[in-house]
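Exercise (ungraded).
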Amino acid sequence: MKTRQWKILLILLTLVCFLLPSQQVLAEEPIVLGCPLSTAFLYGWAAERGFKLAVDEINAKGGVNVGGSKRLLKVEVIDTRDLEPGVPVSEALLAVEKLILNKKADFIMGGPVRSEAALATMSLLNKYKKVSIVTTGVLTPNYHAMVAKEYDKYKYCFRIHGEAKNLVGEMFANFSDLKEKYQFNNLFIIAQDVSHARGAAKVMKAVAEKKGWNVTGVEIFPTGATDFSMALLKAKKTNTEIINIWMDMPESAILLKQWYEMKIPALPFGSTLAAAEQPGFWEATDGKGEYTLCNVVNAGNAPSNATPWTMEFYEAYTKKWGVEPEGLGTSSSYMAVYVLRDAIERAGSLDPDKVISELEKTDLMGVYGRLRFDPKSHQVIPANDPKEGVVGSILQWQDGKRVVVYPKSIATGAIQLPPWMGK
Amino acid sequence: MEILIYGTINSVALALYALGFAMVYGVSRLPNFAHGALYVLSGFITWSFLNSLGLNYLISILLAMLATGLIGALIYQFVLIRVRGMEISEIMASYAIGLAILEGLRWGGFKGMTYTLPAFISGSTEIAGIPVDYQRLLVVGIGIAVVGLLWLFTRYTRIGLALRGMAQDERAAMMLGIDSDLMAVTAMGFGSMLAALAAVLLLPLGNIVVESGYNILILAIAVCIVGGLGSWMGAVLAAFLIGFAQILTVVYLGSHFQMVVALAAIILTLIIKPSGLFGRQKELEERV
């Protein structure tokens, strides 16, 4: 072969070498998970970390098998800011639209975090035919009720974590125990002026009265309120034994510190009490948060042995991020990626209708129990036993540690009362 | 009794939020919309001195107050001085700076609810059977002392008299040889230090969060508008009016309306007496 021919062959070979991988890359475009999250808040950044951990694990194993070809996952996050005072729903909607149109998200995962914004996003998901799995915040029962009511319109919406009604049920299971053990009968409710908390406070009051509790007061505080003295004094005056708190705003730390300093003889039993969920809460309050209870919504957001995967996830998360899973949205965001991966692999495509159909058939033993969706409402099915469904997790701060006290099937301790309650 | 106790505490807290804003506006007629951001920034500076550098708490506080004062003065000297007298530009520039500070803090990783400052004194006592914690009592004590010292400062020191002169009549003050820009820088520095003082006193009650900057700004503006823009004593009186109104609202109407009080006070003042209780701005138009 002449030198000239050799040269041409060499050039052709080089071209082939360059072209081959680029074709492969084209064939393996990553699957984009668009995550609209309020990243400055716990429920936002914890979800982002959960997603990224799961994505890293799946990608390390070659990615997602879509109809025979392996595709990697990619996380795109836009800050929705919807947990800020004023609940800027329009900003959250813009973030979702930007994820779909600019970032070319194949799926929407995570938020928007605030219920008001998530409800407003449902129509947008229908417009763009994007499958979404809500994994953090969004506790309003209206979310899955809307899917059940108008399935064809809202079939794209799934929720993989517990909702307000589950939380209310979990609360009352504990209240009943406390009533039986200590003859508690007086309940005071403090809620933040946001959709899920207002709704939950209303439900709590109705259920409490039905169950024979004396509701000594219901106080709704606007987001950003900085003084809770009047409510605490009212609770004290009315011999309240449990203060039920529905508040995810940062100022809830003021409430808890004030409760401790004033030695109010009532147990602070929170739900979505973001300030108390984080592992750094103890240090931040100089231990004044002791005895505070809060619902972190799903197991895995606090240490327990709900399933064999729980502590495996817990340790992997701690290793990657240098902090323990911090609260609502962590384990659910992590699991959502695995659930979606399985659904895509079974569907063999990214076609929304096929993925929806497979998501409805999900049956996976995850970090916080057996994961299944109600096929009509797309709400994850809750249970008290992780073998039956997804379990919640209520923790209490005891001697600097987050101790899971509910459900009993995964509890690592029992509820303790502050000594100034004299019980 | 609890209304009296917690109304006073709430009022002193509002006065502390607003004094810095009132001082800057009083002297330089500059509405410092970065006030809330400086409040939050000083909290994080104190936290950083205390936790990252391991300095003594008192030293951390003093250094943070000085640093915030310096930052305030620099903001005036390098940015706001260029738009002085142009009201809309002043508002936009100072708000933009505030926004940049708050977003910068967030971008720098200061997010979450675990940034806190320790209380000076832990524990509580009872006044007429009402439990009150020592930190809140300290806030009242120091708040009253600050108002008193500010009164003395503006009457018995050269700088204080110059600031008062500027606040009363800028042209007359300039005719007497007072450097208008220097006084405005000084006022911005002192105003920022007052924001820092409020922060180190009040943040130990809760936590340091970026979002509270906007809230503090609204409260400070509400107090200053009701009291009369530019009047320090008006601000103190307005703080008590709004502070007690908030507590009474919580007790008799519901905690739900607590935040509405400040905003309603702004609207009512602007309708009934736009110059506020002790303000001189627009007073002439009102009389006419």
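Further reading is listed at the end of the chapter. For now, observe: The first helix of chain B runs from residue 2 to 28. The CA atoms of residues 62 and 76 of chain B lie 21 Å apart.
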